Q: What sequence folds into this?
């Protein structure tokens, strides 16, 4: 049975949002044990759940180093509860930098892992499935050895979570030919090519991200973050433009009504809320970061992601992968 | 009076495309002198223009080093003609790597410029204007000093070509706060902040690229290329998805017809063909690279871009900027 700890306080929208998300999730997965961490007064109506009190909240501006001094914060207490409560993982919508560093320091890396990676899933618009990219921002520079490890982590993730038997692993580059890439990426290439545990398919460009170019995209954290934000931004700005186009006059408004169902599906396919956020891979425990401005639906989806990782025993699979 | 040299042979679509583009451009700008370079047989019907014969063609696969041995190619002959014909610049749709390196070697860098930068313009969806980004792929790694120079080059470009009096210059990063960024980006930050010649507005994320976040975005060539391709790919894949949505059934097809005009404008705003391609800045001469698969309209727009740079005396302005 899975057990998850939830930081109830981290989001921009406050505990009303996270409480709603917990109720939604619990309705769907009554078998999953939940431990909620937050201010007692705000969680007074959640007595059906296991509660841990935390007086303090980590602010969104708080950096990686400050958070550890916030010992009474819901974030730190929640991470510690993963160990004390023997839980499988944690979900928080709090400050990314703070959450990633506190999780790494408290839960510690899986033996053999040099650096954990922040992982996100992009919609594969061709197949309706997902393409996994890592690192998308846990580090802002990575060595070739770290990128080689990201490849194995990503492949295990795609196998377990996306159920792809032999995931195609590609290296992000500025050209598809071998020999292209950042200086570190070029050095990572031979590591990936020689690794028999993964199905390496060569370099890939950002243009193939949504387009079934690969199942796993390996990148350093800085470039991965640039790719993530560029694509999310473009999708958002284009949706905004589309909305303006449809609002223009009576004809376009009728046009919108007639195509509404398809447009809604298109919007959903691109909605970061649906994928539920990013996760930190390479840690002794499931660490899922929901967006700071998550709606209850988005936060619930982040919990779903953590639940899936727990049910699929992804952390155990990574331990085996890095032990071998 | 402006004078441009045109490599007629480099494109995937052959000289029929470039001839059509030349005629279109000439119709719009009869004042601009043109020198066409290519195979005599294929240019037999272009005797109204000044012609230079070239027996050979640089293939799309040809790399940066091989091109210089192709002395009889239209690309090399065209670049040389910029000097011998005292022209203002050149337009080619040939292999990017070959074109950039041959242009740099033959035309040489402007004194004071450490490295030239590949520049491209993104549509600013908020204002209808453009945001200029550099480097987007001339290098695959850059020093902080090089990035500091890109800032000045980009600012001069935005002033001259986009007519922005005091362009906002931002540094691409993985977060908007100072202290975020790639290792080299962080070192470039103080250079940009201290440079009184530019209006530095701090870090910017890829999510603000189409969204009026800045007038000029400075980045190393690798990350800039990742950003460019990610955004272009997302725009293309989303347009494809939109098309599918509208083709779904009779109602959505009618919906499309009713919103058609607005959708066409949206498509045009995002069409790389409209901006006409990228250009190499920091060289003694205007160097415009049209897409390899340019239509005659796109190639004509690349010529328009070169023409605008020539009329605005951008190379002279850069020489003054780097001399001061």
A:
């Amino acid at each position: 049975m899975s057990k998850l700890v939830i930081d109830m306080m981290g989001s921009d929208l406050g505990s009303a949002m996270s409480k709603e998300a917990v109720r939604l999730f619990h309705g769907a997965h009554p078998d999953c044990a939940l431990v909620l961490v937050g201010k007692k007064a705000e969680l007074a109506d959640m007595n059906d759940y296991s509660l841990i009190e935390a007086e303090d909240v980590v602010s969104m501006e708080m950096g990686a180093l400050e958070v550890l001094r916030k010992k009474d914060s819901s974030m730190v207490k929640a991470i510690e509860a993963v160990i004390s409560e023997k839980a499988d993982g944690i979900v928080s919508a709090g400050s990314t930098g703070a959450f990633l560093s506190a999780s790494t320091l408290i839960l510690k890396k899986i033996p053999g892992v040099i650096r954990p990676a922040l992982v996100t899933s992009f919609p594969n618009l061709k197949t309706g499935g997902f393409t996994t990219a890592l690192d998308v921002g846990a580090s802002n520079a990575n060595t070739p050895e770290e990128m080689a490890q990201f490849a194995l982590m990503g492949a295990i993730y795609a196998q377990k979570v996306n159920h792809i038997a032999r995931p195609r692993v590609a290296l992000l580059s500025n050209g598809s030919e071998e020999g292209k890439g950042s200086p570190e990426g070029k050095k990572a290439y031979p590591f990936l090519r020689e690794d028999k545990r993964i199905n390496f398919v060569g370099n890939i460009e950002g243009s193939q991200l949504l387009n079934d170019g690969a199942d796993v995209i390996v990148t350093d954290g800085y470039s991965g973050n640039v790719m993530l934000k560029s694509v999310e931004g473009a999708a958002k700005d284009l949706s905004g433009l589309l909305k303006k186009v449809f609002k223009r006059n009576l004809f376009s408004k009728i046009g919108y009504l007639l195509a509404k169902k398809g447009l809604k599906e298109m919007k959903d396919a691109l909605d970061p809320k649906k994928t539920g956020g990013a996760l930190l891979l390479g840690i002794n425990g499931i660490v899922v970061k929901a967006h700071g401005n998550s709606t209850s639906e988005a936060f619930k989806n982040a919990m779903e992601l953590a639940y899936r990782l727990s049910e699929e025993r992804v952390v155990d699979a990574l331990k085996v992968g890095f032990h071998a």
In short: Chain B is about 45% helix and 15% strand. Chain B touches chain A through 58 residues (CB under 8 Å).
